[in-house]
Specification:
Blueprint lengths: L9 H30 L2 H21 L13 H37 L11 H20 L3 H23 L5 H31 L4 H10 L2 H28 L1 H40 L3 H34 L4 H20 L5 H4 L3 H24 L3 H27 L6
């Protein structure tokens, strides 16, 4: 009888594997968030959010975006050389970032307008190298179709990190507990992935050659040439609110935004992330062999849309009361902000997992143009909000800008999936 409920297609089974594992991974941080919001203040979350914003922006540099090319080579040997390239760059660039922080800690702190961030800037390179390693190994596992491994690593990352944040909170550690928890999760997940990959692929790993790494770096040079800038703009657009909320308003406001990101990331990672991982592998394979990936694009879009409509509609109406009840009354204002962001998160949910078509079709220039437009609109939104000294205006314009650009993104990615504008 149970066989009737087991999906027959490999696509569906892979999605369910990732969704199940990622669901378990997200369950722990979501479950303890109501506890953390009563142990950490909005200011603590604000400092942690500022730290993670800096890490996110810096992380765009460390791999040279070569990890996005891991899925493209026809043979695994070349793909593994790209993994080695991305990890090597992560270590080298993170070491350079450490030098920058040691020399310019004071000016960076003044620019951010948050003196409490100063001691945590020294830990940014540790986060970036771990993030570079973890991301590179993730793409390798994605290429190999090791979805159970991906799911397990996410459970380890979110579980160990969240438990560390909870444990250190009782020591009244302030933002230190949040930062240490994040580093712990990254370290544990990267170590697990590395150990499992070495055990399975050690024979191939031993064949790595520096000359081939350099050759592939040249072959896929458009990835760092265009995507560092493009994804730099994209990441900056996403992190600008955290940076400017702290600078223009206060760290408590940034803390509210940090909680929203933490809560709203759950459905993004659980469902959209799982579908996106499987779509990226299936679509890249279809594109290589047929020159388009329309069928898998349309089926994934329909799944995302069907999953998003009802939950996001309900969330829009209950967000303020829900935040006040779950996280404590002081956090109700975060629910008000979350309501403003709901349309943006909805469109992000149904378009972002499909945007990997830009990379599959090797349309990095087009992606760069989109990212530049997005950043300009986001900065304009906060500039207008700053002029009026009104955070609601700033956040509403920010959400509107993202909605517009996500709609444009969806239309362009659909054309690319159809094989339009092919080289």
């Amino acid at each position: 009888m149970l066989k009737k409920f087991i999906p027959k297609s490999s696509y569906a089974r892979n999605v369910i594997t990732l969704m199940t594992g990622t669901g378990l991974a997200q369950a722990i941080p979501i479950a303890i968030s109501p506890i953390l919001t009563r142990l950490y203040s909005p200011e603590d979350f604000g400092i942690f959010g500022l730290y993670m914003a800096i890490v996110a922006i810096a992380s765009v540099l460390v791999t040279g975006r070569y990890e996005l090319a891991i899925l493209l080579p026809r043979n695994d040997r070349d793909a593994l050389h790209i993994v080695a390239l991305a990890i090597g760059l992560s270590a080298a660039v993170s070491a350079l970032l450490l030098v920058v922080v040691l020399v310019f800690n004071g000016p960076i702190t003044q620019l951010l307008g948050a003196s409490d961030i100063a001691p945590w800037l020294y830990w940014v390179p540790a986060s970036t190298v771990l993030m570079g390693i973890y991301t590179s190994l993730n793409y390798w596992s994605n290429r190999k179709g090791q979805y159970r491994r991906l799911a397990l690593s996410r459970i380890v990352q979110n579980g160990s990190g969240s438990l560390m944040q909870l444990g250190t909170a009782y020591a009244h550690s302030g933002p230190a507990g949040l930062v240490v928890g994040q580093l712990t999760g990254q370290l544990m997940a990267s170590s697990l992935q590395a150990r499992m990959i070495y055990r399975e692929d050690q024979n191939q790993i031993k064949t790595l050659r520096w000359g081939r790494v350099r050759a592939l770096a040249r072959k896929y040079r458009n990835f760092p040439r265009f995507l560092i800038v493009a994804h730099g703009f994209n990441t900056a657009s996403g992190q600008v609110p955290m940076l400017l909320l702290s600078t223009l308003f206060n760290t408590a406001t940034a803390g509210y935004y940090m909680l929203i990101q933490r809560v709203m990331a759950a459905p993004m990672v659980l469902v959209a992330g799982a579908l996106g991982d499987v779509f990226r592998q299936e679509a890249s394979r279809a594109y290589i062999h047929t020159g388009n990936c329309r069928a898998i694009y349309v089926s994934t879009f329909k799944r995302l849309l069907a999953l998003a409509v009802l939950p996001f509609t309900v969330f829009f109406f209950v967000a303020p009361a829900l935040f006040g009840w779950v996280f404590g009354e002081p956090w109700r204002v975060a629910g008000e902000y979350a309501r403003i962001f709901t349309p943006m998160f909805f469109l992000q949910f149904i378009t972002s997992p499909l945007s990997s078509v830009y990379m599959i079709a090797e349309k990095q220039k087009m992606d760069l143009a989109w990212q530049i437009c997005l950043l300009v609109l986001v900065l304009s939104a906060f500039a207008i909000g700053g002029i009026f000294s009104n955070i609601e205006i700033a956040l509403a314009l920010f959400s509107t800008a993202y909605c517009l650009m996500y709609a444009i993104n969806g239309m362009i990615s659909y054309q690319l999936a159809n094989g339009r504008w092919a080289n």
